Every structure is written in C-alpha cells, then in structure tokens.
C-alpha cells in the first residue's frame, strides 16, 4: 500500500456556543491529531457526542475549527484547508475532496443523473464522459433507470442516499469523507454500497469514515480510531479497538 500521506490533522480544537439555551460553550474537539494515507480506510468509532462528525466537518471545512491545522497533500504540495479562501476551497472540494453525508442536498428539479454527472465534471471529465461515468455509478448502486431524471426531492431516503454515494465516488477524489453513508439502505443495497466503498482503497483513495454499524467497520476499515470527549483515545485494527 502507498503510505504517502493525504490528510494531516494537528491540534484540532472546536467549540460551539448554544445560543438557544443559555450561551454555554460545548467543547467538541480537544486537540485531535490524525493522519490518513493513500489507500487507507480510517473509521472513526465512539459514542454520540464524542466528536466524530465534528472532525469530519472540520476536515471538509463546513465547520471552521477554533485552532489547529487540516492539511490536504495534493500533487502541487500541501494545502492548509483552514486558511484557504472560499473560492479556492470550492475548487479543491470539486476535484480532490469528497464528502458523503446521510442526506442529499440538490438544486430544485434536478435528477440523479445530472447530480452525479455534475460531480464527475467537477473532477475533470468532459460532459459526455461525465454522463457515462454517472450512469455507471448509478447502475452499480442499482438505482432504477426510470428515476434518473426524476427530481431528487421526491426520491425515498434510501434512493437519495445512493445518489449521494454515487456522486461522492464517481471518479473518486483524493480524500473521501463518509458520514453514515449507508444508514437508510436495505440489506441488498447496503451490500452494493459497502462493496463500492471497499473498492476505493484499491484505487488509492484515502477514506475517513463514521459508521455506527460495527459490521461495516470490521469489513472496511484498515484502521480504527476511537474518540471520546473530543479526543482520540485509541487507534489500531478493528479487532484491537472494537474488542477493547
């Protein structure tokens, strides 16, 4: 496996102020350090409130950390995501940094094929190549072709989740962040999705993922980091961490 670093996180801190309660401050991340290499699948485990999703969102920079660094190592050199201007960040997200959440957000009256093809175009494919790649991704996840031009807003939760995963993995980015990407899927479609995710490490994609499904972690993760109270408290193989 190529051990070249793709993601380097150092000293990450994040707090939230609860304005709707009494202004109290909640600490979500307390000095997190983490590396993810090319071809590595790192699963984040831990109870609700441990900081798992905050770590993903700070990495994707939908949250801006209070302090610390998040560096994406690109072919052009290291890029500090926390300091990147918004326009440059948008370009980087399009080509090299993917994020798949539990929920799909799309423009009105946009169908699955166009959503996935748009993701492929952002990753460097021309329009024809992007549509072909999008069709292949949707077929791999068994989304019925009659739904490809239907407004994503009318799809079921499981169908929307498959569209989201197809968009995240079409011509896979350098770093892919997954936040419970199969939570709404039935067993057959969950199996297809897990097979797709498992194939990414062989393509050299660095994956950082949150799953509450321990079976998925055991199946996919090359390394598991356990979080508690905003810190990484344990790191190792799935057998080492989940059996502890």
UniProtKB/TrEMBL annotation:
One of its GO terms (molecular function) is ATP hydrolysis activity. Pfam families: ABC_tran. The keyword Nucleotide-binding applies. InterPro entries: AAA+_ATPase (IPR003593), ABC_transporter-like_ATP-bd (IPR003439), ABC_transporter-like_CS (IPR017871), ABC_transpr_LolD-like (IPR015854), P-loop_NTPase (IPR027417). Keywords: ATP-binding, Nucleotide-binding. The lineage of its organism: Bacteria, Bacillati, Actinomycetota, Actinomycetes, Pseudonocardiales. This is Alpha-D-ribose 1-methylphosphonate 5-triphosphate synthase subunit PhnL. GO terms for cellular component: plasma membrane.
């Amino acid at each position: 496996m190529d051990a070249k670093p793709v993601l380097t996180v150092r000293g990450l801190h994040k707090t939230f102020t609860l304005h709707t309660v009494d202004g109290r401050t909640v600490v979500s991340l307390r000095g997190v350090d983490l590396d993810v290499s090319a071809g590595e699948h790192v699963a984040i485990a831990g109870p609700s409130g441990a900081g798992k999703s905050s770590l993903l969102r700070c990495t994707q920079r939908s949250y801006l950390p209070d302090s610390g660094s998040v560096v994406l190592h690109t072919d052009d050199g290291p890029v500090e995501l926390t300091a990147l201007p918004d326009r440059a960040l948008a370009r980087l997200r399009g080509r090299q940094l993917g994020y798949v959440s539990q929920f799909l957000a799309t423009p009105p009256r946009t169908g699955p094929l166009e959503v996935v093809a748009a993701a492929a175009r952002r990753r460097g494919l021309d329009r024809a190549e992007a549509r072909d790649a999008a069709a292949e991704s949707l077929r791999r996840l068994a989304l019925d072709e009659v739904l490809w031009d239907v407004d994503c807003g009318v799809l079921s939760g499981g169908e929307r989740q498959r569209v989201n995963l197809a968009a995240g993995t079409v011509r896979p980015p350098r770093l892919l962040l997954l936040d419970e990407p199969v939570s709404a899927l039935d067993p057959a479609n969950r199996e297809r999705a897990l097979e797709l995710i498992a194939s990414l490490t062989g393509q050299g994609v660095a994956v950082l993922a949150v799953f509450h499904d321990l079976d998925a972690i055991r199946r996919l993760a090359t390394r598991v980091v356990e979080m508690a109270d905003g810190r990484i408290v344990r790191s190792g193989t799935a057998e080492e961490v989940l059996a502890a």
